[in-house]
Amino acid sequence: MKNKEHTRQVRDTVVKKFKAGFGYKKISQALNIPRSTVQAIILKWKEYQTTANLPRPGRPSKLSAHTRRRLIRDAAKRPMITLDELQRSTAEVGDSVHRTTISHILHKSGLYGRVARRKPFLKDIHKKCCLKFATSHLGDTPNMWKKVLWSDETKIELFGNNAKRYVWRKSNTAHYPEHTIPTVKHGGGSIMVWACFSSAGTGKMVKIDGKMDGAKYRTILEENLMESAKDLRLGRRFVFQQDNDRKHKAKSTMEWFKNKHIQVLEWPSQSPDL
């Protein structure tokens, strides 16, 4: 609730006691008003020689300074809070304002609604594995990477699973953890495809019907892997990349690679999708 102003009589009494030699503390105790209020009244009187309300530059704010600070604090602590939630929280303390009013207050403090970035949810063990992979390949030549056939499955969303999420943040803070949405490499989707590519171009792309399991994955490899490597002119001694999905690392799948004399590139867990 917005604080009420003290009457002109109270303000005049504050100044009268101040002229009589009373200090801020004694005036506060005598009139039962906060010391900061006594100080503000006297400072205003010293500057303008009056205790009357001065002309204001426009319509007074519907929200008190305390409520404005609380809005800014809530948005900073909970970046994903919505305008509707902030509007309800102000209504609970007796201040009913429009969403645009709240938005203007946040903008003045430097907080703007931005789409939250999506980034892989990495644990410490994932980061260590990625660093180990990077350091182990520091000496690789460009020609080595030209022999790699990269692969992955991907989902094409037709509905709202990838909806945008807005956060309140200041400039140059998009990378902060509280301003991002952790992503994982599983979930529902409408269409799933398997595809591969190398530095020479793209290989085969296959639409996956039904649930993807180890047997279906090996069928896709049998029908498309060697043909893609041939089309891309990778030669017989190419290196195949796949992530650590269970159907990729299954014993029967790894035996298939061994029988085909295909070298598989070791890949760190939870690496970004290709």
From TrEMBL:
Domain Transposase Tc1-like: 68-138
Family matches, as InterPro entries: Homeodomain-like_sf (IPR009057), HTH_SB (IPR057667), RNaseH_sf (IPR036397), Transposase_5 (IPR052338), Transposase_Tc1-like (IPR002492), WH-like_DNA-bd_sf (IPR036388)
Gene Ontology process terms (BP): DNA integration; DNA transposition
One Pfam family in the UniProt entry: HTH_SB
Record-annotated Sleeping Beauty transposase HTH domain positions: 1-51
Gene Ontology MF annotations: DNA binding
Record's protein name: Transposase Tc1-like domain-containing protein
